[in-house]
Amino acid sequence: MPPTIQTADPSSPASREAVLGAFLRAHRERLAPADVGVAPGQRRRTPGLRREEVAQLAGLSTTWVTWLEQGRPVSLSARALASLAGALRLSRAERAYLFELAGRRDPQHAAGEPVPPAVLASVHAIDGPAYLLDRQWTALAWNAAAADLFTGWLDAAGTERNLLRAMFLSPALQALVQDWPHRAARLVAEFRAHSIRHADAAPTRALIEGLMAESAEFRAAWLSQDVEDREGGRRGFRHPRQGTLQFEQLTLVPAAAPGLMLVMLLPG
């Protein structure tokens, strides 16, 4: 089946399609035939692989690859992009850039991604409360200070390791967080912004659908359609043993694991 051609914006001198085409062409020309097990054959007029060779390696048509390199507005599927990424031997960063340019979600990340040991170790190297969240904001790791602070979530009595579920379903965490109604609504707005790239993933859908059914407060916040950046700032807590606590929250995205978030609470 031939690619689907869409109407391009003629006023855009450097459209995403043009940038994508240049990216694919440059990486095709970098590959030597020997790199992918292709016989050199007769003398080549252009460096690297031929378009038909990339098409064969990716299981796509030569016309499709040609139109992509020419910057035509071709409708791309995630599966076809994954095949191209494999054929061109793209690195993790290059693959992520390809999917970002094409505006598609990488199916390789649908089931999560491994956590680099250094990222896990960094959680325990931080003096103050720190924790690591996955794409659905389930805690993957936390240090002793975080376990001591977050009663009803990361302590031994906590049963919900997902931050959203604990925020709306754990009475102990609700009692801990100062100005809970505002903080809970803000958390939902932040999650909406963060999760848009994997909103169709089964774990994300299951999380939202479950909370919609179990929490009227979450349902109201989600249906409000509010969207906020996760900016950090001052966070207040009413701890059952330590009393009133104030921290400055800082959230980082590890370069080695861009789907995760490292959250630190610094002395306020």
TrEMBL record:
InterPro entries: Cro/C1-type_HTH, Lambda_DNA-bd_dom_sf, MLTR_LBD. Pfam families: HTH_31, MLTR_LBD. This is DNA binding protein, Helix-turn-helix motif cro/C1-type DNA-binding domain. It comes from the Bacteria. SMART domains: HTH_XRE. Residues 23-95 form the HTH cro/C1-type domain. SUPFAM superfamilies: lambda repressor-like DNA-binding domains. PANTHER family: BLL4672 PROTEIN (PTHR35010:SF2), BLL4672 PROTEIN-RELATED (PTHR35010). One of its GO terms (molecular function) is DNA binding. Keywords: DNA-binding.
